[in-house]
Amino acid sequence: MGSRSRRSGRELHDEAMDVDEDEFTSEHKLMLQYFLHERMATKVELVNIHKELFENRADLKDVLTTITSKINPLKMDIKETKCDLTGETYFVLIHTTGESFFPRCCVFTKPQLDFLKQVLTGIVLSSDGAVGTIPAINSCKTLTKSEAGDTIEKFVKEKILMETAGHGLCLTPLAVLEFEPFFKACFSGNLLVCDLCKQLVFIGKACDGCEQRFHLHCVDKWMKSKKTVCPSCAQHWP
């Protein structure tokens, strides 16, 4: 049997968009355009956008299912996740190329990309899921300090990093999901998984007894169920 020819990006695009207009309406396309531009939205933001576009004509879950079925052939997906820092629910559009590093590397120069790898490494290896902005700039070996500062602003603008007064530079919900192949390829022995939701955790609560780390929002949910012991080692939590 002859080998199957590889389809072009144009063919994949046509396949994704060749759908019944009654199913994939202009409202679906507008929501997709929003995701392509913004890359992520809080649940509150998305509910408001859905209400404005669809009113009561379609359930949000069904709308997202329809959109993802069209973009999956283009190696994209929309995922629901929670922010490590705030616990807020987000919906994010990610690339699913299977590559071990950032799929949007064309956005950055080689020195900027090397700096990004450096910052990501610092975050993964840190004890609190964050790195300080000034230490990151001072330790940059591929850019001047001024260029490094401007590049961090670009990382924030591209929604890879968020900068907070209490934590410094940490990962956005988008970055946690989209960088997962890179993290697993390069830091498999350093990654922590929340024992409650079984997802990667960078910022969270560590048990004093077993040192297992949990998402703050997972701990809150656990404690609200009136459970006051560690889910992993059963040590009492005050």
TrEMBL record:
Reaction catalyzed: S-ubiquitinyl-[E2 ubiquitin-conjugating enzyme]-L-cysteine + [acceptor protein]-L-lysine = [E2 ubiquitin-conjugating enzyme]-L-cysteine + N(6)-ubiquitinyl-[acceptor protein]-L-lysine
Entry GO terms, CC: nucleus; Smc5-Smc6 complex
One Pfam family named in its UniProt record: zf-RING-like
Localization per record: Nucleus
Class of this enzyme: transferase
RING-type domain sequence ranges: 194-233
A single BP term in Gene Ontology: double-strand break repair via homologous recombination
Major location category of this protein: nucleus
PANTHER family: NON-SMC ELEMENT 1-RELATED, NON-STRUCTURAL MAINTENANCE OF CHROMOSOMES ELEMENT 1 HOMOLOG
Protein name, per record: Non-structural maintenance of chromosomes element 1 homolog
Organism: Homalodisca liturata
